[in-house]
Amino acid sequence: MGRPVDWIRGVEIIGLCIVAAVLYGIVHDQITVRLCVEYFTIGHPPVFRTESRTLLGLGWGIIATWWVGFIMGIPLAITARYGRYPKMDWKQLVRPLFWLLLCMALMAISAGRIGWHLAQNNHIQLQGRWAQEVPLEQHRAFLAAAFAHSASYTTGFMGGAIVILQIWWKRRTQKPVTNVHSAVK
Known about the structure:
185 residues, mainly alpha, 8 helices, elongated, 0% strand, disordered C terminus
């Protein structure tokens, strides 16, 4: 009966990662859509036929992040559940995921400020179609939003790998669980 429970516990971990990523994405996009709506209406494909910043932030917050949580959730579930070391469940992963999301937010804020500063001082500028379609007064905000989004993804993927390694290390520093059935044989 242990194997189905392991499978269910793994799915719970994947679900936690998806929920965490989506919640982060929604909050992140609610902020950046107010900074530069053109980042979503011009810089993204026209998935949502709305001018509502709230709906754009909600929709893109979900679409752009659920898969990141799914991709991270699979190796995290395997790392937390597989093997002879004490298994971890989703509750034990909330804190490391919270710290990852906090680091992502801080990096997004920092990168957004850097993007704004670089654009303001003409070190970077929009090119091509975006330079033509985005109103000139929104170029700095567009670049700030782009920097913030790039920082979130980069920090999320790199930080996610670090969280997975930390969980792997934490489990391996604990005493292995002995198999009761092998002791009987």
